[in-house]
Amino acid sequence: MRALVTGGAGFIGSSIATALVDRGHDVRIIDSLVTGFRESVPAGAEFVEGDIRDEAAIVRASRGVEVVFHQAAVRSVPRSIDDPFASNDCNVTGTLRVLEAARSAGAGRLVYASSSSVYGDPSEPLRREDQRAEPVSPYGVSKLAGEMYCRVWSAVHGLSTVSLRYFNVFGPRQRPESKYAAVFPAFVSALLDGRAPEVHWDGEQSRDFAFIDDVVSANLRAMEIGPLDEGGVFNIGGGRPKTVNEVLRSVSAAVGRWIDPVHTPKRRGDVRATMADISRGRRILGWEPRADWDDAVRATVAWFTGARR
Fold first, then answer.
1. What is 192-248 written as a DSSP string?
2. Which residue, 138, 233, 251, 257, shows the most beta carbons closer than 10 Å to its own?
3. Average pLDDT of the chain?
4. Active-site residue, from 139, 149, 166, 180
């Protein structure tokens, strides 16, 4: 299979690309390297440095591909609030460019990286795909717009699309450099440096965390599965919500160091609790999260420790 991975030098994209190469697929990656890292591109993959919003670049990268894994995005709810135009430009306009390039190239399927942020903050923490999406951040809006464009390209142009709503992905390769770093790399980095980790709000907000290996396996199943309800949407979570305070305790145990956290105010766009109903993915994709929580945390900390040596 000839595959294109957009954002393939980033955390999730490079993990998918590596799995594809390991399985013998021909892999091409396009990444602007604004947040991605050249060293994350797996050996054996063709690399194109370019921006998905550049029509010529994405058309060139899409030539001859059979499946597209669209992972490139401006991520983070707080970042989208600080700069909604950048979020919209990459996540909406960029997704349109990728969809049209995939259609023109004759790709058989596009797997789109969506987000649990599309749900917003409903009163019940359990998120189901048939719930009304009511995002409360520009990031959530941009991801929902991408889903809708996927549905339209399926209905109008016949491009088979699958949207995977990721829930708080963590694991090796996730970087802590940005001020918008996700909770795992932020905690690990602080503890390894001997700094007090920063906990927003009271830390009792809960999230459904998905380990990177399970996210990769979901993408592979979305590639391999036969005919689907086109524009199909699936929650990809771990099925085990944890509070931020619980995450900090788990990370501290794996690092072997506890430092009392510094509490900061609730961030704009934060929601109180999320939990993924993953029954649809089980039933239709035949996908199941396999990672053990403690093993996944230890693997994440071990990667960070090794990367800093």
1. HHTPPPEEETTS--EEE-EEHHHHHHHHHHHHH--S-STTEEEEE--S-EEEHHHHH
2. 251
3. 95
4. 139
